[in-house]
Amino acid sequence: MIKVNIKSGETLSFDLNSEIGLNEWIKCHNDIKFQNSITGIGIIYSSQWYTLPLPKKFMTSIFYAEIVKNRKNNNESVGERVICHSDEIRVSLLVYYGKRPRMCRIDVKKIGKCRFNPIVKKGG
C-alpha cells in the first residue's frame, strides 16, 4: 500500500496489488498537476510506514511507485518501490515483503539530465 501526501494536506492511498488501485495510481501518476502537488510518498507494510519526502532545492521532481517481482519467478511479488527523480538524481526506497527481518533498501543514483519523460510536455 502506498500513501501519497499532497499540498492540500490530504493523504491518498493506492493499493498496487489490486488492479483498481494500480489503475488509479497510473492515472494520477500521469497527471503533471498531481505530480507537482506531491510533498511525499511512502509505503505501509506490516504496520510500518516508510517515507520518501519531496527533496528540497531541486527544480523538478517526479514520483513513481511499483511492485517489485522476483527475477526467477516473475509471478511472485517481493516488495514495493517508490522512486523520486529530482533533476539529475534518482532516489528509490524499496520495502521487501516478509516477516523477519523487516528490511528496506535506499538507493541514490546520479542519472544525468532527464531527456525524456512522457508526462512532462514541452512548454507545459
Strand-pairing-aware structural class: mainly beta
**Anisotropy-based shape:** globular
Helix content: 10-25%
Terminal-residue CA separation = 31 Å
Distinct helical segment count: 2
Proportion of residues in extended strands: over 45%
| Overall tally of structural domains | 1
Element pattern in H and E: EEHHEEEEEE
Q: Unreliable runs, pLDDT <50, ≥5 residues? A: none
- What's the gyration radius in Å? 15 Å
What spatial order of strands do you see in the largest sheet? 2-1-3-4
Average pLDDT number: 87
Set out the fold topology.
Elements: E1 2-6, E2 11-14, H1 19-29, H2 32-37, E3 38-45, E4 48-53, E5 61-69, E6 77-86, E7 89-96, E8 104-110
Antiparallel strand pairs: 1-2, 1-3, 3-4, 5-6, 6-7, 7-8
Please explain how this structure is put together.
This protein has 2 helices and 8 strands, in the order ββααββββββ. With 124 residues, it is mainly beta. The strands form 2 sheets. A 4-stranded antiparallel β-sheet has the order 2-1-3-4. Strands 5-6-7-8 form a 4-stranded antiparallel β-sheet, with no helix packed on it. Strand 6 and strand 7 form a beta hairpin.
Give a concise summary.
With 124 residues, the protein is mainly β. It has helices at residues 19-29, 32-37; strands at residues 2-6, 11-14, 38-45, 48-53, 61-69, 77-86, 89-96, 104-110. The strands form two sheets. It has a four-stranded antiparallel β-sheet with strand order 2-1-3-4.
Keywords, separated by commas or semicolons:
124 residues; mainly beta; 2 helices; 8 strands; globular
